[in-house]
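Protein folds are increasingly written down as discrete tokens. With that in mind, we are printing a sequence and the tokens encoding its fold.
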Amino acid sequence: MRASGQYGTAAACRTRVNVSAQGAALCLALAASLSLAGPAAAQSQLQNEAKQRLEQNRQRLKAAEQREKELKADLAAMEAERARLNEQLQAAAQSVQFSEAQLTSIEARRDALLEQQKHHQEALQQRHGSISKLLAAMQRMGRNPPPVIITRREDALEMVRSAMLLGRAVPELQEEVKDLVARLQELDVVIKQIAEERTKIEAETQRLKNAQARLAMLMEERRHSVSERQTQLEEVRREAERISKSVNNIGELIAALDQTVAEKTGLGTYQNQLAKEGQKEDRPARKQDETEVAVVLTPGTGPLAGPPGRMAPAVPFHLARGKLPLPAQGRIALSFGDTTSNGRKSQGIVIQTRHGAQVTSPSDGWVVYAGEFRSYRQLLIINAGGGYHVLLAGLSHIDAQVGQFVLAGEPIGTMNVSPGGQSPESAPVLYVEFRKEGRPIDPSPWWYQGQQIKVQG
């Protein structure tokens, strides 16, 4: 019994040992399998994370591309809106100036007719005395007729004298009557023409008011459209105001402001582009170039034109000869080189305008100054590039800001409004000066000769 118990105990012991061995083996196998599966799971996890990051990057890239498309579309829409607004501003300003020219011509015709009316009335008044005397003589002869032929000799002589007087008076009176009728008919025609011209003036005045209202609305729209750049423009304006108080003359003002505006606007880029293209006009061969250009761009071939949404000059300034529009409708009262009232030579031109006349930019360019300066009062300076500047003085109100890019024909201000009536003696005058590298030059070759407006009858 003891032996068998010992045997069972030994078997059990062996069984427990075998079981432990199998467990150990299983543990070892499990551990081995886990050791082999660990890197694969980690690698799979890394791959999943990489895929997730890749997908996220793809989504970000797609969103960025979409945003870029939206920004491009917004930019294109802004450019199209700016082009639309610029085009409408130019058209509205041209409409205003057209009505101003129409009114000026109609008023000139009316004034000439009024002068004719006055002349006819004065002529009739002067002849009124002689006509009255002849009519009085005829009346006296009617009251005291000459005696018949069979009366006494003394009466016959009196009759002959009366007949002779009547013979001379009647033809003269007939001529006087004919002339009087002709004068009265001419006067009647003139009075009717004056009435017609006054009707035209009323109609054109209403058209002018409508055009001015349209322009005012567009100007307000432009002010809102540049609100995004208002901070930048305000910085330039403050700097320009500071500089204007520290300089002594117009040359120093232009030199200082050019640098400021070039740093903050597209003027600097444009100047660099001109320099790279070799189009600066201080080269010795420029005279020959200008002669060639004058042959191609002769006056009257058409005004300066270009995309209305442009942010740089359509052509370099020296290529715009014979293309630039006069900034205001009116009469050139003083030309370049004429002697002024103080005995000096005029360095620009003086345009006598209507009261409240619309003023437009004569060229493309960047506004480098807008405000009061010394004796110039309200002064506007435009940098047209290539060393050229345009100065306009005498405006009552300026509708342009420092740093702003303006187009030729774009409204930039108005002249003084008369407190009562239009008078040639009190008509406002606009001073226009062109400068090249700081020196005044004759602007006459630059004006478009075909811009004179013909008044519709």
Observations:
- The helical segments are 2-143, 153-225, 230-246, 250-264, 267-276, 286-296.
- The chain has two domains: 53-222, 233-451.
